[in-house]
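Record minuted for completeness.

…
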Amino acid sequence: MITLKTPDQIKYIAQSCRLLAQLHDSLGSFIEAGMITKEIDSYCHDFIVRHKGRPAFLNYMGFPGSACISVNEEIIHGIPGKRKIENGDLVSIDLGIDLDGYYSDAARTFIVGTTDNPDHERLVRITRQCLEVGIQGASKPNARIHDISAPIFKLADSNGFGVVRDYCGHGVGLAIHEEPQVPNYVSAMSPNPRLRVGMVLAIEPMINLGTKNIRHLDDGWTVVTADGKPSAHFEHTIAITEDGVKILTVAD
């Protein structure tokens, strides 16, 4: 069942989202080659707790970190640990904050240091643009979920990238995962509800440099590309309001 939020609830969800955006903004200057992913996770945990929030992912269904940190071929759900960050790595960080019972969710992919690989730069740029066109699709009059999904898939596919089908966006706000699902491709079998005032959605294209196919590591969490090529991941939490679509995970 899709839970519609009241204007007051959206106001409090937005506070959680702004805090999360501030954290993501700060990560751009914090992450550097030579550190391990556990150091990034500790930074995120301390930031959230210091601002009176709770890391929404920590212990969620047993996940052992505050942030999902996925490097290069890792798509999502990377467990923070001893993996060392190298210059030119693609580091995707997916985070959620529970701020007094109101949830935010957002992800960004960072290129650490410098890279001489134009395909990696293009992957990150196009994935960010996929998020943008998905949000634009949600802004159409009488939009439905497929109006988000279709432009994401079209942009990624036209650039020769693989669109992950096994994971997708979702409702968020009063819990970390809610209905409806928001796929990054269109299927005749997938539900296509109309967007309504009060919906809060996490839109999150996960785009691979090569194949769309995935595999799971033995740790039970980490999802990687089947061909070992890099992946990128961007996500915003948005709200459907009387005044149109609002991106909540911005620091402003």
Summary: Helices lie at 7-30, 37-50, 118-138, 145-158.
